[in-house]
């Protein structure tokens, strides 16, 4: 059996490579999930990108399998300086919200707030906005906090970021 890091290496950087094959292996043997997680620490940025993609696919199939990884996402993966890791945790946090403890959600909010304020990548900004907006519906303090950042992002030169922020403003504040 090839190691996942080797399987996730090579090919065009924007392709899935053998990501689906890795996911299929894990879906038949949950015990191999840790090997995939360790690929986040590869020196190869394509491996890390494909690792993120694999985690999203596994989450769609078996959310509960990712429970042991939530703290590790907040403590370790949030520190990886790669856009794909950051946009993936925003998506995973949203998918896993109902399974997360109050403390885990609060920690995730801090991470995503930091990303909204400081990150430059348009996908990170869009996914972060989407997650924070969903959480803002149940959290008045977050809803109040996010408004000026959505206003700022609604003026972003990148159309997708501006559009996502405008939709978020409409969704959160037009019924007031």
Topology, element by element:
Blueprint: H1 4-7, H2 19-28, H3 33-38, H4 45-61, H5 70-75, H6 83-96, H7 102-118, H8 122-136, H9 140-153, H10 159-173
Brief sketch in words of this structure:
The chain has ten helices and no strands.
Describe this structure in words.
The chain is an all-alpha fold and 176 residues long. The protein is built from ten helices and no strands. The N and C termini lie far apart (57 Å).
Q: What summary fits the major beta sheet? A: none
| Strand segment tally | 0
Strand content: under 5%
**Intertermini distance:** 57 Å
Overall outline: globular
Oligomer: single chain
Count of helical stretches:
10
> Portion of residues in helices?
55-70%
User: Low-confidence stretches at least 5 residues in length (pLDDT < 50)?
Assistant: none
The ordered H/E elements are HHHHHHHHHH
């Amino acid at each position: 059996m090839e190691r996942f890091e080797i399987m996730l290496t090579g090919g065009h950087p924007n392709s899935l490579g053998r990501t689906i094959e890795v996911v299929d292996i894990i879906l038949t043997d949950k015990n191999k999930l840790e090997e995939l997680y360790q690929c986040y620490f590869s020196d190869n940025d394509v491996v890390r990108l494909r690792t993120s993609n694999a985690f999203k696919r596994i989450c769609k199939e078996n959310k509960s399998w990712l429970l042991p990884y939530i703290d590790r996402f907040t403590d370790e993966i949030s520190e990886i300086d790669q856009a794909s890791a950051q946009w993936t945790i925003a998506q995973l946090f949203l998918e896993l919200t109902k399974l997360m403890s109050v403390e885990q959600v609060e920690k995730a909010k801090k991470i995503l707030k930091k990303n909204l304020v400081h990150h430059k990548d348009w996908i990170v900004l869009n996914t972060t906005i989407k997650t924070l907006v969903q959480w803002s519906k149940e959290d008045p303090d977050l809803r109040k906090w996010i408004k000026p950042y959505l206003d700022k992002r609604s003026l972003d030169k990148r159309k997708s970021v501006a559009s996502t922020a405008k939709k978020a403003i409409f969704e959160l504040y037009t019924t007031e």
